[in-house]
Structures are given as structure tokens and as C-alpha cells.
Amino acid sequence: MTNRSYGAAPRGRQSEALIALEDVTIAYGGKPAVAGVGFAINQGCVTALIGPSGCGKTSLLSSLNRLTDLLPGCAVTGAIRIAGRDIRAPGVDVHALRRRVGMIFQRPNPFPLSIKRNLDMPLKEHGVRSARERMERIEAALEAVGLWREVSGRLDAPALALSGGQQQRLCLARAICLEPEIILLDEPCSALDPIASGVVEDLIAALRGRYTVVIVTHNLAQARRIADDVAVFWLVEGAGRLIEHGAARQVFTVPRHEISANYIAGVRG
Amino acid sequence: MADRGLSTAAGRCRPLRDGALALAVWGPVLLVTGVFAWLLADLLWQGGARLSLQFILSAPRDAGRAGGIAPILVSTGLIVAVAMLAAVPLGFATAALLAEFTRPGGAVGRAIGLSLDVLAGVPSIVFGLFGNAFFCVWLGLGFSILSGGLTLACMALPILVRTAEAGLRMVPDDWRHGAAALGLSRRAALLHILLPAATPALAAGLMLGLGRALAETAALIFTSGYVDRMPSSLFDSGRALSVHIYDLTMNVAGGNPNAYASALALIVLLLAINGFALWLAELLLERRMLVQ
Questions:
Q1: Domain chopping of chain A, boundaries
Q2: Under 8 Å between Cβ of B56 and B69
Q3: Average model confidence (pLDDT) for chain B?
Q4: Domains in chain B: how many in total?
Q5: CB A257 within 8 A of CB A236
Q6: Is-contact B145 B82, C-beta < 8 A?
Q7: Chain A: residue nearest B171 by CA?
Q8: Does B46 map to a domain?
Q9: Does domain A17-111+164-265 have CATH number 1.20.1250.20?
Q10: Whole-complex ipTM
């Protein structure tokens, strides 16, 4: 893979933390999947969560929009603050939270509706009454993910008839449409072919600055290309733990921890 | 060497075993289709000549020995319509509750599920007695199309709920999580995504319920009654097609020819409804864009 670089804004260290995790443990039926995690995610940056399978990266990601609420037997402890507010405090409107924190899944999951309805329906449900405003936002979102030119002539066609890469971009547009602050991505390229994967990766890189992006990836080269910050997870005594967290350049060139050094060098994992 | 011996033994047995397998697979198929073909042929043979437009459009005369089945078809249609109008919203709502809003294995879900399964096994004559006691007497609806329809609704409910519930459970979690991640309420997810995606199962449930309602006799004798006049309102008694067939064969001497013709009409109706349902499900499937 060539070393692409994306020129976009804050690659520096001056940006401030938007999400703060303190001693977060996520357990399924009492068995911790990830334990004692604490780190901060900077506003406007791309933070990659890396590490081998089964060390709780996806669970951790899902706790940021409280999608973990939906998983049976899943319990989250510790504090997760977004802009200083604990998202698990009583009285937090979970629908409003998830509107602020969009999520893209490993497998593209457009709804079995038309391309347009996939974006239109969530907007309508979130109270955007004016059909004209919805159409404008749909067009802008599809434009932002580079789909507009490909689908503008067949907005009423089934979304599931699109290719995998197009579907994933549609899902991204669907999230962007609601104007979130944070976008969570759970291995968004792993189900795509290399070309579609490259297109989606470029899009993610382009989200930098406008959105705070948290991405789970198994692809170290991808993390190296797009991440500003990296958090390395490893399975320790049966539970996923944060081994190292820092600027991507530092973690990839001079890792502080032996495990992350070996993992990044490809010796382990 | 042992290997060789085994393979030749197996080789010798193969034609026999394959033959037995073919018989085991095709035998039941032939038996089932054969019984249905026989039944249909018998009905066509005995009732085909009498089943005409005239028969469908005229009223029965001489206790049903002569004339047609027009008012009976109207009563049947009304009874089934009442049953479906009452059972479908209730059934689909219950299915949604079971599949989406109760914990799997939770107390509420298990209690409802158990009640439904018991209800599904209750003989229709018991439903008839219940319908008579509850709708006709206690609610004062008397022998009427309304009483009959509501009794059938109770009967069709379990099958409707169970098929719709199974259909909803088949919808992949990807869409539930996708909807939740967009901050959509569960109501919105159910209405806009899950129910449309489960349309084929809902249609199948509807057809099974409808079939059960159309074919019902015992539950209707005590609730919608025998009157074979054209009903003028839902509070009139009305004779369903199946009750008509029962009455002609059991109570009316010389009623058999018209009973056959009526039975043929019932079968044709059922086949037509099934065909329509299949066509509708396919159409909805295409329109809902469930292209995989």
C-alpha cells in the first residue's frame, strides 16, 4: 500500500478532548470484555482503536453511543463523558445522544427502503418537517460521500441493489445527514473490496476536522494512514485492556510499550 | 483390503438404498398431492356442473336444495371481514410486543406465548360455545355476523400472532442496531423498517388466519347462526359457506348436489385467496426492495 497523506486540518496536539473515558469496564453476563479503560478522544481528530480480535474494541465503541444498552446481558461501568457530560447519567435522552454520535457498522446496513427513504425517514423522524430542507440535506449528504452523481437519477431505486461500497457510503451519508458531532466506525472497510475500501477510507480521512471520528480497525496500514491518535488494546488475563494511547506518529514510530511495539512490527497479533 | 470390501458391499447395496430413499421422499409427495387431486376431482365431478354464475348470484330455495348461494357468500364475506378487521391489528400488535418489546425468555413473553399456544389447541366447538356465551349473550349481540366474526377473530389470533412474530424475529438485527444508532425510536424502527421487512410473513399469517376463518363451521353454528337470507346489517344472523355445506349434507335430504357445488365454490375461493396472497407478497417484496 502506498503511503497516502491527507492534508486536512488539526493534526497537531492543540485540539481539546471531546470524549473522556474513565475506568470503563464492559462486561457480558458478568464476564468483562474490556476492563479499566481510560483515555481521552480529541475533538476533530481521527482516533483509531487497534488490537487483535476479541479485546473489546467494538464493545468500547458501542458504549460511546450507548448501543451497548441493546445488547442482552451487557453492563457498562465507569464514566463516559462527552463534552463534560456523563452520557449514562439518568435523564440523558438516548435518542438525542445517538443523533449527536453517528455510527457505521462493519457490514453495510442500509434499510430495505429506497435510496432516498434511507435518508429521508430518519430526518423526518428527527422532526425535520420541511420536505425541501430534507431534500437539500439529503443531496448535501450524498454529495459529501460522493454518491450524488452515482444515484441522483435513481433515488427511488432500492438501496439494497447498490454495491457494497455504495451501501457503506449510503450509511455514512445517512449518519452525516443528521449532522452529528462524532462518528463511530466499526471496521467500516472490512466487508468491502480493496477499491471500495480505498474510497471509503478517503471519505473517513475527509471527515477529519468537521467531525470527531473514532474508528475500530484491524488494518494497521489503514490506521497509520488516517489516524491522528491511536489506542492499542490487548487481551490481558481474559479481558481487553488499553496498552498504549497517543499520537499516531509516536505510537507507530516509537511505541512505549513492548506489546504494542511487537504488534505494530507484526511480530504478534 | 477391508476398505475395498466395504466399498463393494456399499456398491451392491446402493441401487436398493437409493430406491428406498426415492420412495421415502416421493411417496409422501405423491400421497399428499394425490389426496388433494382426488378431492378436487371428486368436487369437480359432483359439483362442477351445478357451479355456475346463476348458482353464485341467486338465493337458495327449498332449504338449499335448489337455487344458489348469493346471500351465503355475502354473509361469509362479512363474517371473515369482521374477523380479520378485529384480529389483524390485535395480532400484529401482539406479535410486535412479543418480538420487539419483551425480553426473550421473560415472564411477560412466556405468559403470552403459552396462552397463545393453548388457545391454538382449543377445539373450535369450544370457541363456538365461548362466542355464544360472551358475544351473543353477555354482550347482547345475539346470533349475528358480528358475533360470528369476533369469535373467528379469537380463533385466528394465535396463528396470526405466531407467524407474524416469527417473521419479525427473522428480520436481521443489523437493521435494529442501524435504526437505534440513528437515534430512531423503537416505534419508528418497527413502523418504517421491521414491519415492512416482515411483510411476507405477515401476509402468510394473514392467509393462514383467513383460511382457518373461511373453513370454520363449529364455531359459527352457535354465533352467526343458520339464517340463509341476505343480511342487511352486521347485526343480522348470516349463514357461512361452511355452515351451509354442513347443513345441506346433514340436515337436508337431497341437499348433496348443492352441497358439492358449494364446497367447490369454497375450495375455489380458498385457492384464489392463496394465489392472491402469494402474488401480493411478491409484489410487496419487490416494492419494498428486499433485493438480496
A1: 17-111+164-265
A2: yes
A3: 85
A4: 1
A5: no
A6: yes
A7: A112
A8: no
A9: no
A10: 0.86
